[in-house]
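Readers of this paper often ask what the protein records in our data store actually look like. The remainder of this section carries one protein's record, kept here as part of the documentation.

:::
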Amino acid sequence: MLDTLKDILLHLDTSLSLIVAQMGFWAYLLLFLIVFSETGIIFMTFLPGDTLLLAIGALSAKSSVSLNIFWVNVFLVSGAILGNMLSYYIGNRYGRRIIRSGKMPFVKPENISAAEQFYQKHGGMAVILCRFFPIVRSFVPFIAGIGKMDRAKYFYFSVIGAILWISSLTLLGYFFGDLPFVKNNIGYIILFIALFPFIPILFSKLKRK
């Protein structure tokens, strides 16, 4: 049974239409929980993220499916924000204790001070950009909490990142999700969406140099 459930979750983007047809309105809650878990619980990084958002958007465009693109974005943005805040809270409250216990060997105690300095200087950009990269988006909120990034500042950039990540991919799926080019180049498209807001900043710096 557990293997079946895991298989459904891993391939949720491909079986989405069947799930929506069976669950109706409750599908919104399921999608909320998936995004909340992927962004808020570190060991749930295996859940589908970007491809799921694209599939949800494409499915919402079909008149035969009872998914409304507005409510899709409301539920998913809420899940992404709350998930990140949970991960930040755990990192802020218990992160150092977890690291000292050795349960996260890939994060060393000596890296904590470096994390604090990084988030003081580049925290906002990291919080926004991490949304577009699988696995990374599950760890950055936790590390930001450990690094004691200002809570109000973190919340502000987390909201911006959630809106950009969710809406850009669901709307891309809504308008263009069935095009072969989009399906075959989703990785490059996501990277472009993530970096596009920072292109003017990059050109500005290069011009000054």
Q: What stands out?
A: Residues 2-208 form one domain. The chain has a mean pLDDT of 77. The chain is about 75% helix and 0% strand. The first helix runs from residue 2 to 10.
